[in-house]
Amino acid sequence: MARLDETQIADALARLPGWARVGDALLRQFTFSSFPDAVAFVVRLAFDAELADHHPDVTISYRRVTLRYSTHSEGGITLKDVEGARAVDRLHVPGPHA
User: Fold this and answer.
1) Domain residues of the chain, as ranges?
2) Residue 1's pLDDT is what?
3) Torsion region of 70: left, alpha or beta (phi above 0 gives left; psi -120 to 50 gives alpha)
4) CA dist., res. 70 & res. 93, Å (int)
């Protein structure tokens, strides 16, 4: 899968509220009301990522989860990363933990 060009990345980010480009990756941070809520979110995400065979880098810091999508084999952002970010947005239900 080919890397996206600058225009394609900008267009994707316009439709991905809360996501930002950081270097050659898409990044978003989520804050939850508790550590168990943060871990539960990551567990739900893990099943979807495994099915898609595309996994984000995940950092859990207490109630905060940071996700970073980049296609390592392509050295940057591809459609797989955009699709991963969209899947996360469908999975994440904003609420008091958001």
Assistant:
1) 6-91
2) 79
3) beta
4) 23
- Per-position b or e across 25-43, b if 16+ CB within 10 A of its CB: bbbbebebeeeebbeebbe
Angle at 58 between CA 55 and CA 59, to 5 degrees: 175
Mean pLDDT of 6-34: 97
> Does residue 97 register a pLDDT over 90?
no
Give the CATH number of domain 6-91; options: 3.30.1360.20, 3.30.70.580, 3.40.190.10, 3.40.720.10: 3.30.1360.20
DSSP secondary structure letter of residue 51: H
Q: What is the pLDDT of residue 3?
A: 96
Region 89-98 average pLDDT: 68
